[in-house]
Amino acid sequence: MTHDVCGPGTIGIFKQEFGEDAKVWDREKVVIIPDHYIFTSDERANRNVDILRDFCEEQKIKYFYDIKDLSDFRANPDYKGVCHIALAQEGHCRPGEVLLGTDSHTCNAGAFGQFATGIGNTDAGFVMGTGKALLKVPPTIRFVLDGEMPPYLLAKDLILQIIGEISVSGATYRSMEFVGSTIESLTMEERMTLCNMVIEAGGKNGVVPADETTFKYLEGKTSVEYEPVYSDAQARFYSDYRFDVSKLEPVVAKPHSPDNRALARECKDVKIDRVYIGSCTGGKTEDFIAAAKVFLASGKKVKVPTFLVPATQKVWMDVYSLPVPGSGGKTCSQIFEEAGCDTPASPNCGACLGGPRDTYARMNEPTASRDLHGVLREMSSVLPFSFVDRLFFGDLKVMYLDAEAAVRSTMQRGPLMHLKLNNSPLLGFPDKQQRPFAFARELASSVRNQSHFIVETAIGARGTRSEWEL
Q1: Contact in structure between 315 and 119 (CB atoms under 8 Å)
Q2: Which is it for strands 462-469 and 452-459: parallel, antiparallel or unpaired?
Q3: How many CB atoms lie within 10 A of CB 123?
């Protein structure tokens, strides 16, 4: 699986290594889903979707969830929305299979007893050509969750509890297996939330053993036969963690790390500026119903801008059609409107990866899939005619740059700020051919190995200041 952010790069690798006229190894096992930068006027973002469209037509890819009419997503029956939830809803997540995707949250599909993990564009390009990938078998950490889940807890509380316990590197290149009576009682959407965030603990993949809940969800979604795989009685685990869920409290991850765990009640006095309900982790039907119940119980209107981004077309329709339990027949959309929330947006990744300047709900501090420094911010693809005054690493002034140096700033994956400076030789690095990531890393390591830097720019009489860590 690939999408509009990584798809063009993956296609480029595939053609480079296998030839311009090469065919993918199996056109029915490649899934391409535009979802990240869809509802934007940005030319480069639109170009990415065009590249996907041309490739899928050329290769006769069976599962390409295209969108052509950006003015009304409902006019595009093929368009689905966020890839990880769309994969599940369209029957691509099946027990016992392997799913490789060019996105870190591909592990979402582990909820189905599927080995699902994220890979880079280079690996994906070779998978397209050969249907093969070289993977080490990861050792497994088992998480046993037992006890009746209180009504005030969600699966998000469970995974944040776990990440807070083991840290963001506690499961690095390990499989995280979730078992126990609590897990067996979870819905498929809740299991997806659990597996979605194993990458935030460094996990290679997450897995929930397939059961009747899994099989029932898949009824009518796929005609492909599958064979579930389970840990046997002789299985040995790297380590075991056990939780009595009945004793847990709601938790949050404070900035700037998913393992910066705190009890929700400890944060009751924290002032918030905006609210964002959405993402592959928190934009499913049950997530919106849970939010609607909170609004319904409070009977109050929101005091800050509250943005709603359903993950997929199906979720969007559910928001407008399904009655919320205990509401007297009201739908989520009606409850949100009465509470003063923004109108539910078109299904897509929204602000989760930043995005072009017209990305819906950018510049937020949301509770989405991650709370990392430098993510979910305005991503200015170009600061036109802006001039860099000075560049600092920590408190160390490094240099003054040429006043004519325009800065291009791009953000890709993770909490990394990638810089590319044009028309300005800097520490002897090539200015136009240097890859932004390599440039930033070399620049950081060249000055006392500092990784914290501040960029100050002057635009006319106005100044901007950005603070980042590599």
Answers
A1: no
A2: antiparallel
A3: 17
> pLDDT tens, 216-260?
999 999 999 999 999 999 999 999 999 999 999 999 999 999 999
Integer Cα distance of 423 and 432 in angstroms: 8
Q: Are strands 115-118 and 98-101 parallel, antiparallel or unpaired?
A: parallel
What pLDDT is attached to residue 352? 87
1-36: pLDDT as tens digits: 999 999 999 999 999 999 999 999 999 999 999 999
Longest dimension (CA), the chain: 70
Q: Which domains, from first to last, does the chain contain?
A: 2-247 (3.30.499.10), 271-379 (3.30.499.10), 387-469 (no CATH)
The DSSP secondary structure of 119-162, one letter per residue, reads --HHHHHHHHHHS----PPPPEEEEEEESPPPTT--HHHHHHHH
d(C-alpha 255, C-alpha 373), whole Å: 7
Instruction: Yes or no: say if 200 and 88 are a contact pair by the CB < 8 Å rule.
Output: no
Q: Is the CB of residue 283 less than 8 Å from the CB of residue 351?
A: no
HEC-encoded secondary structure of 67-78 = CCCCCCHHHCCC
User: Is 285 within 8 Å of 315 (Cβ atoms)?
Assistant: yes
Residue 421: phi and psi, rounded to 5, are -105, 130
